[in-house]
Amino acid sequence: MSDASLDSLLAVLPDMGGYGAYVWPAFAIAALVLIGLLVQSLVSARRNEAEAATLRAERAAASAATEPREAGHGA
Amino acid sequence: MGLKDRNRPAATMHRYANPARFLRLARAVQPWAAVLTIICLGAGLYLGLFASPADYQQGESVRIMYVHVPAAWMALFVYTSMAAASFAALVWKHPLADLFAKAAAPIGAGFTLIALATGSLWGKPMWGAWWVWDSRLTSVLVLFFLYLGHIALTNAFDEPTRGARAAAILALVGFVNVPIIKFSVDWWNTLHQPSSVLRLDGPTIDPSMLWPLLLMGVAFTGYFLCVVILRMRAEIAARRIRALRYSRAAG
Amino acid sequence: MRPFFATLRRELRLAQRQSSDILVALLFFVLAVLILPFGVGPAPDLLRAVAPGVIWVMALLAALLSMDRLFLIDHEDGSLEQIVLSPHPLESVVLAKCLAHWLTAGLPVVIVAPLLGLMLNMDTASLIPLVGALALGTPTLTLLGAIGAALVLGARRGGVLVSLLVLPLYIPVLIFGVAATDAAIHDLPVRPHLLIEAAILLAALALAPWACAGALRHAAE
After folding, report:
1. What is the pLDDT of residue B8?
2. Which domain holds residue C171?
């Protein structure tokens, strides 16, 4: 981010008695870290759970396909 | 997480060791924790940023406290919970305790990073330097490295249970070391202000500042609960994937 | 006690056979300290002020240098499993290995440290606390490092990982070690710092073999 756009961003926010340049980045860093962790955790939970479900469905389908054949051999 | 049942027989603990049971419990807890987090975060941010007074010495810069202090609390709380979980993992071989420690470490590292970064932004106008080799800063920095070491060790093994057990021992060794580090750097150098909330003679902080601080603390705890459950769910699913792939390759 | 001395004898004999390894670690320590004047300049007052810290930091790195190999050879050739399965207490074997490591890696550092102190313009009076603190501190470095070495057995990039795990744990040892020498330079009492250093050593002596043995049992599984 360029200095000019940073200045204009800080101009919009309350200036915090001259401490705006310290207060707002502090909250921004905290938000960045917390949201980043949340998104990363959400994405990996979704992805892994979906993959586990498809794998299990595949295996269920495979065993459903093989079992009758084996039963047929037996009979 | 079954960590509170330490005194009861191991059988009660293992009732919660079942991932299916845990997942059911997690799904029930998660929405409540999320709602609690959002409400407390909103109220805490409003009170902290707009409705609370400026400090008579530090001016408006004191508002950094409302992220800095709760993040520092969480940095210590998460490490303590990881050490407790590691103890359960080593003594009772509780499988979910391993998962908890693995899931909690990155969140704890995140809170520690926030505490360090916001402390630095608070220190610049107050002390005139981005970083000072003060005892409190130094020991939190060491805590950050302990978290990073824990994460690195957990992920350094091909077999995940080996990594979990090694990391559990490291977490306990680090836990013994944390108070030693604290005392050693306390005597080494100090500048950081003493705690004004957690004191034997009651808080010395004004209620108008204490409320947003406590609300933010509750919000961060709720956030931790939400994200740790998410990460544990992801890890349980990852292990299931590994087991399914293995059985497919073997069968 | 018998497995303790048997292990100690075996380790020392091994070290004797690979004595060039000991020499390399010691040379690293000496060179790393003596390269300092080229970095900060040869001003005697400056060198005297930073000498204790530099000697301590380099002693720390020298201890780490040979640390990751403490259990690695036994792990790779399978003898670690035999040690773990044998009826002798694993803790005493760990302690013997640590003592052997200190005798070959820590003690030489303690012996050459005063010489380096003299070359960095330290007063002769402050050399005794330097040696005392190193003698109490370097065994702690070995014991804590052994935990790291046991934890990374079987891990990828174990050598680098040991440093990452162990360096944060070394900080208290470093602080009180340097404080003892600094106190001597400023004519302050040295004893309290040495006593704390000794207390840390006793705590490490009690806890580290236990943690190490736990890690080794998991590694041998």
Report:
1. 46
2. 2-220
Task: Please return the burial class of B43, using the count of CB atoms within 10 Å of its CB with bins 0-12, 13-18 and 19+.
Answer: middle
What are the extents of the domains in chain A? 3-74
Tell me which chain C residue has its CA closest to the CA of residue B145.
C168
* Contact residues for B60 (Cβ-Cβ < 8 A; gap 6+): A16, A17, A18, A19, A20, A23, B54
Residue B249 DSSP class: H
CA of A41: how far to CAs of A45, B119, B227, in Å?
6, 26, 7
What is chain B's percent helix, strand, coil content, to nearest 5? 80, 0, 20
Of C169, C200, C174, the closest CA to residue B145 belongs to C169
Q: Do the Cβ atoms of B166 and C171 come within 8 Å?
A: no
**Collapsing DSSP states into helix, strand and coil, what is residue B55?**
strand
d(CA B102, CA B113): 18
Please compute the mean of the pLDDT values over residues A31-47 and round it to a whole number: 93
Measured distance CA(C5)–CA(B55) in Å, rounded: 65
Average pLDDT, chain B: 81
Q: How far is CA C209 from CA B27, C180, C215, in A?
A: 42, 27, 10
- Residue C127: Cβ within 10 Å count: 19
Instruction: Judge whether residue C147 has pLDDT over 90.
Output: yes
Residues of chain A that touch chain B, judged by Cβ-Cβ distance less than 8 Å:
14, 16-20, 22-23, 25-27, 29-30, 33-34, 36-38, 41-42, 44-45, 47-49, 51-52, 55-56, 59
C198/B5: higher pLDDT: C198
pLDDT of residue C126 exceeding 80, the answer is yes
Instruction: Give pLDDT tens digits for B39-50.
Output: 988 888 888 777
Our count of domains for chain C comes to 1
For residue C40, pLDDT over 50 is answered with: yes
Q: Left (φ > 0), alpha (ψ -120 to 50) or beta: where does C78 sit?
A: left
Expressed in angstroms, the distance from the first to the final Cα of chain B is 34
Q: Minimum mean pLDDT among A60-64, B78-82, C19-23, C181-185: which range?
A: C19-23
3-state secondary structure of C137: helix
Tell me the C-alpha to C-alpha distance, in Å, between residue B146 and each of B76, B104, B106, B130, B179.
Answer: 12, 13, 11, 22, 13
Q: For A19, which of B50, B61, B237 is closest by C-beta distance?
A: B61
The amino acid that residue C122 corresponds to is M
Q: How confident is the model at residue B240 (pLDDT cuts 50, 70, 90)?
A: confident
Chain C: give the shortest CA distance to residue B167, in Å: 8
Averaged pLDDT, B212-235: 92
How many residues are present in chain A?
A: 75
Asked whether the predicted pLDDT for residue A47 surpasses 60, the reply is: yes
Q: In residues, how long is chain B?
A: 251
pLDDT of residue C1: 67
ipTM: 0.84
- Report the share of chain B in percent with pLDDT over 70: 80
- d(CA B36, CA B146) in angstroms, rounded, equals 30
Token representation of residue C82: 């035999």
